[in-house]
Amino acid sequence: SIMRGCDKFCTYCVVPFTRGRERSRPMNSIVEETKKLQDQGIKEVTLLGQNVNSYNDTEGSNDFSDLLRAVAREVPDMRIRYTTSHPYDMSDKLIETMAEYENICNYIHLPVQSGSDRILQMMNRQYSVEQYIERIGKIREFIPDCSLSTDIIAGFPTESIEDHQKTLDLMRRVKYDGAYMFKYSPRENTKAWKMEDDITEDEKKRRLNQIIEIQHIIAKQLNEDEHGKKFEILVEGESKKNEEEWMGRTCSNKVVIFPTKPGISIGDKVMVRVFNSNSATLFGKLV
Hints:
By secondary structure, the chain is an alpha/beta fold. The chain is 33% helix and 24% strand. The chain is globular.
């Protein structure tokens, strides 16, 4: 964890009320902790916060880009990931920093929540669809092979069929590698709690199932595009379904399954060529 709390006050979210306002840890303490983890043999670290993009080291006036750069420099052999980002605070400086360092993984979780400007405004998300798309364009300009995932809420209060369709259109436009998809449920003490929850459960489920189906199709196609390519995989452990296979991840956070081989251990980096896939997993062979 690099920070606690959140100042965004999205109308559906209880985090600012349960975890308080944003407080960032001093940058030096995070860098030192990461170096100690490397000394202990850790191969990958994830910098965590409700909105890491608004990280602010008050002791040194450093932003999240500065922190990410400092960590990447101090532990060049470790993979560096982070989550979660808020589109409003996704700066050019951060994107350029990611592109500059090979050990910063090419993966960004950038929650959009809805493809409708009207619903985004009701959610107090502080950006428009076009502003979000502009950020996606900047990411792909500087990090062409970056994988993207998102969060989507189906059936937010007053969401019309047209609003829902705009979300589906956005998904087809962006083409996310992965998504966390939910139907809206009211949370006490939030502003949305006071809104009329006017979408029936059956309709929420119907819209959510549409979102899931489209994401499944997109992810399947994106994974098929990886067939024949070689990737450096960080071995994480045995496959859940077959103890004679290993599971690891690419730099872009894609799960890869491949046959075991004597001499390979958890934490090793190996080269794997992908030959098959489904919507969630790549399957490969050691090169």
